[in-house]
Amino acid sequence: PMLFHDEGEKGVIIGHMAKANPQWRAADQQRVSAVFSGPHAYISPTWYESRPAMEKLLNAVVGFKIVIDDIHAKEKLGQQKSNADQLGVYQGLLNSQSADAAELVRYMDKRGIGNGHCAPTRHSY
Which residue from 33, 63, 65, 123 puts its CA 20 to 30 A from 4's CA? Predict the structure, then answer.
């Protein structure tokens, strides 16, 4: 899991990974990329009914902090498609039972992109 914190010029990403994962040693003091796709959320160990032993959990992970120095983002919401195609996709998402589809619909509505209610564009952000 990774969380964004508003710290410094562009922010930082804080997270952890398993100590057994060799990537934490290889990435130390290196420039790295973090890729995000779709809704996700932090799951607290305190939410589990079984309440896993925190000490055992903490001994099995390594924390990390990524200082953000560059951001590359692209909204791929079908905004280059015809309004009819956008509306077809938008309706399909609305009819889906998927939580990710519902989150995508909310995002499309918020941004006003890809929902069939605006002229097609060729931008990427």
Answer: 123
Place of tokens 């710290």: 7
Model pTM greater than 0.90? Answer: no
Using an 8 Å Cβ cutoff, are 111 and 75 in contact? Answer: yes
pLDDT digits (tens, 9 = 90+) for 64-78: 999 999 988 777 788
Residues 6 or more apart in contact with residue 103 via CB below 8 angstroms:
38, 39
Tabulate helix, strand, coil % of the chain (nearest 5): 30, 15, 55
CA-CA distance, 123 to 75, in Å (whole number)? 9
* CA–CA dist 2, 15 (Å, integer): 4
What is the SS3 string spanning 71-100?
CCCCCCCCCCCCHHHHHHHHHHHHHCCCHH
Question: Sheet of 2-5: strands edge to edge?
Answer: 2-5, 12-18, 61-67
Residue 121 contacts residue 114 (beta carbons within 8 Å): no
